[in-house]
């Protein structure tokens, strides 16, 4: 019997350990992003919990994980400065959620399909590089900046590269030892020979790393005090002892600010930027998904809208689908939305029961986890494979990476997209674009004829048509009259052919060359 990748109960053995790893990654990120945003620390945790407990079930994606995003820190900072109070800002978050709901209902989610594969892969590779570069100082116990920092220029006046140079002159030996031991364990845990044993399959390496790192620091404190890791390099969660203390940290929106025009300007900015970042992240996660499932992006926008409304009502930061957490989920073997939900459960439990324990976790151990995630996103094989596809695919890929490294996620994506569009327009100059579908007398046989020139501009309509094909049908995709098919379209056809059997669809591809589809895991 074929395993169903969407079964919520059949994949618990993979989803629960993956959810635990995502929790360990998300915990310091939630706190770090709240700190960088100038908001109460607890607001980051609220958003992470809502992203797991609420958005995971409403989401259009099986693998994406939602929470506070580093890309929104500047917007939150400016919003707080403009509106004056955190309560007024919460009202803007609620209104932004309503805007996202509207975008979902008017089917604006299709925008995500119009980003070329080279740009999406460039985004993933850039995120991987940033994770590696940003975690090296935390790995060495030398970085006082917040754990979730993703910007090139940092709060202390240094940049990504100068921070690494500083780290080598300010190494905290205890943190470095914990980081190295953690990294060795994680590398060993990924060994396929060990995966044959049930223990190594079920227990995530990140959990062993966390427990061992706490034990090591305890050993340092008692026997080698000079190696003890400073509190500034440990996880720091607010300790809440009872429901009254919880009530004191939860904040409500200031509904009296409804008449303030600035509230709507901030809300519009949050709604648009968060929606775009979500769509990009979901498209990227679909690339990472080994089952190549297509996420319902309109449903995702609605889910994010509900999430932001709930988070805003409880005193949380705005959220997006977050590529760092989502890629950690995929890398840890997550299969369904249960993994994101489990991460939310652990975040909620950490607030009430685990804060004292979790505050002993060294950041260098968590940095090791993110170093592994970063490497999987930016493996050398990815660059080699992209180079083999030709300069039309490689140049937008590299430009996207460099632009994101030296600016931020959204600006870098826009620069990469501009370069990608240039090559698309160049390849399709004066070419007619159309997509024609025929049905034979037997309604279970569907013939799709491609036009003479099929460009990336046809990708969205082709993918949507393939997604809407009925189950238990025989599909013939014919390129007999086609002179040129863009790589992105060829890739989409091959990914459909690879996974169509999961929908009981048989696929026959005629007169269309096969291409090498790069795997991102």
From TrEMBL:
UniProt keyword terms in alphabetical order: Membrane, Transmembrane, Transmembrane helix
Chain segments annotated as transmembrane: 16-34, 41-59, 88-106, 113-133, 164-187, 199-224, 263-285, 306-328, 340-373, 394-425
Topology within the bilayer: Multi-pass membrane protein
Residues covered by the STAS domain: 435-521
Subcellular location, principal: membrane
Location of this chain's protein in the cell: Membrane
Name recorded for this polypeptide: SulP family inorganic anion transporter
Organism: Pontibacter toksunensis
């Amino acid at each position: 019997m074929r395993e169903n990748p969407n079964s919520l109960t059949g994949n618990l053995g993979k989803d629960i350990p993956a959810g635990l790893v995502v929790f360990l990654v998300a915990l310091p990120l939630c706190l770090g992003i709240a700190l960088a945003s100038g908001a109460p620390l607890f607001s980051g945790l609220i958003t992470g919990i809502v992203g797991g407990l609420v958005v995971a079930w409403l989401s259009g994606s099986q693998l994406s994980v939602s929470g506070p995003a580093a890309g929104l820190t500047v917007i939150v900072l400016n919003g707080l400065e403009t509106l004056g109070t955190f309560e007024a800002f919460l009202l803007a978050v609620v209104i932004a959620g309503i805007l996202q709901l509207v975008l979902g209902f008017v089917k604006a989610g299709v925008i995500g399909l119009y980003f070329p594969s080279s740009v999406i892969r460039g985004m993933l590779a850039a995120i991987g590089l940033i994770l590696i570069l940003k975690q090296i100082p935390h790995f060495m116990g030398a970085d006082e900046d917040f754990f979730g920092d993703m910007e090139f220029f940092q709060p202390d006046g240094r940049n990504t590269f100068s921070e690494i140079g500083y780290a080598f002159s300010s190494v905290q030996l205890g943190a470095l030892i914990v980081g190295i031991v953690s990294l060795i364990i994680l590398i060993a845990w990924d060994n396929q020979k060990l995966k044959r044993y049930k223990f190594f399959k079920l227990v995530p390496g990140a959990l062993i790393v966390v427990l061992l790192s706490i034990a090591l620091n305890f050993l340092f404190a008692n026997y080698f005090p000079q190696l003890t890791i400073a509190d500034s390099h440990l996880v720091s969660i607010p300790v809440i002892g009872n429901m009254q203390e919880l009530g004191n940290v939860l904040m409500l929106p200031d509904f009296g600010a409804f008449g303030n025009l600035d509230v709507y300007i901030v809300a519009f900015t949050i709604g648009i930027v968060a929606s775009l970042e979500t769509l990009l992240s979901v498209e990227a996660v679909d690339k990472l998904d080994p089952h190549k499932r297509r996420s319902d992006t309109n449903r995702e926008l609605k889910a994010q809208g509900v999430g932001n409304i709930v988070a805003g009502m409880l005193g949380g930061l705005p959220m997006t689908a977050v590529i760092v957490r989502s890629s950690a989920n995929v890398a840890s073997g997550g299969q369904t939305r249960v993994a994101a939900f489990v991460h939310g459960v652990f975040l909620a439990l950490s607030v009430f029961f685990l804060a004292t324990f979790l505050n002993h976790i060294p950041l260098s151990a968590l940095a090791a986890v993110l170093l592994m995630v970063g490497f999987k996103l930016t493996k050398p094989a990815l660059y080699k494979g992209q180079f083999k596809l030709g300069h039309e695919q490689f140049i937008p890929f590299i430009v996207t990476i460099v632009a994101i490294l030296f600016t931020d996620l959204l600006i870098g994506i826009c620069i990469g997209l501009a370069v990608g569009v240039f090559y698309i327009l160049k390849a399709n100059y004066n070419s007619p674009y159309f997509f024609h579908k025929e049905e034979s007398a037997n309604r279970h046989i569907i013939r799709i004829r491609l036009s003479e020139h099929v460009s990336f501009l046809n990708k969205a309509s082709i993918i949507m048509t393939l997604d809407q094909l009925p189950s238990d049908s025989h599909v013939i995709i014919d390129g007999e009259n086609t002179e040129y098919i863009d790589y992105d379209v060829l890739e989409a056809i091959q990914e459909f052919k690879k996974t169509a059997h999961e929908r009981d669809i048989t696929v026959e591809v005629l007169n269309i060359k096969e291409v090498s589809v790069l795997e991102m895991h």
